[in-house]
Write a structure and sequence with these properties.
With 286 residues, this protein is an alpha+beta fold. The chain contains eight helices and eleven strands. The termini are far apart.
Length: 286
């Protein structure tokens, strides 16, 4: 009995063909399994526009309904004409658009619910179906996926700001991106599920960086610029209080943006004539 795995991915960028695997289909001549990851959809949501996400979520649910009978959950006995012309046309249609149907791969293990779960974690890189309890802890990896977008080629990514460049810091610290379009624009994703003291230190450091760049920008006749922190939902009551305090602080010197709305950064970069911070006057040491 031949087992087949079919990874299903989402195209994130029309130009670079960047994609992430979000779902997996597995079948043989007796059973089939299919599911998609909400964790991976969260990454896609931070990059794709709202219309694309509505289409994507509907299509993935439609695929689930097509592959698996609701009454039998993940398992279904095959009919003789499963891969009829209708199904092939259906798969081909999605494979040319936002959703890509991957090349079928052999699977040597016995195909059952347990082995499908293992294969799903291996191919998709996440737990199937639901959001895992630690999904928000992957904020940093999610941000790194966002930074692969073509728009970030205009600016410096994961740039190390050194004490020799600005006042207010005593060691080098990285920001997720920084560029200049008449004035500086920098951003950093901060995981609010981490330890409260650790989050506080990261926030205070970014504030020092923002203030230091503002001072330098004003000294050479530029506007202060724009600085953003991208945050996720905290889990502990302490971190929720911390987030509330930061959001209410009118003197913090940067804007707070929900990580789910980080695609606004991409639109800002696409619309502006940005250059890399490292190629600007601001990159000259003090």
């Amino acid at each position: 009995m031949k087992n087949v795995l079919v990874p299903i991915s989402v195209r994130l960028d029309n130009f670079t063909e960047d994609s992430i695997t979000v779902a997996l289909l597995a079948f043989n001549d007796q059973v089939r399994f299919y599911d998609f990851s909400l964790e991976k959809l969260k990454i896609a949501r931070s990059i794709l526009d709202d219309n694309s996400m509505v289409y994507l979520e509907g299509a993935l649910k439609s695929l689930k309904n097509s592959f698996v009978e609701e009454s039998k959950k993940k398992e279904l006995t095959f009919t003789d004409n499963l891969f009829s012309e209708k199904y092939i046309d259906y798969l081909s249609k999605y494979s040319r658009g936002l959703i890509r149907i991957g090349e079928p791969k052999g699977f040597a293990m016995e195909l059952n619910e347990t082995s499908f779960h293992k294969a799903f974690r291996s191919f998709v890189g996440a737990d199937l179906g639901k959001m895992s309890p630690k999904a928000d802890a992957s904020l940093r990896s999610n941000m790194k996926e966002v930074l692969k977008n073509e728009a970030f080629k205009k600016v410096d990514v994961l740039y190390s700001v050194k004490p020799s460049l600005i006042s207010g810091i005593y060691a080098a610290h990285k920001v997720d991106f920084i560029g200049v379009n008449g004035s500086p624009y920098a951003g950093l994703a901060v995981d609010f599920t981490k330890d409260e003291a650790e989050v506080d230190k990261i926030i205070l450091t970014f504030r020092s960086i923002a203030n230091g760049i503002k001072e330098k920008a004003k000294a050479i006749g530029m506007n202060e610029g724009k600085y953003e922190v991208y945050f996720n939902d905290p889990e502990s009551s302490e971190n929720k209080k911390l987030l509330d305090m930061v959001r209410k602080d009118r003197l913090k010197g940067f804007e707070m943006v929900e990580f789910g709305k980080v695609n606004t950064v991409i639109r800002n970069l696409e619309k502006g004539n940005y250059i890399k911070f490292s190629e600007s006057k601001l990159a000259v040491s003090k």
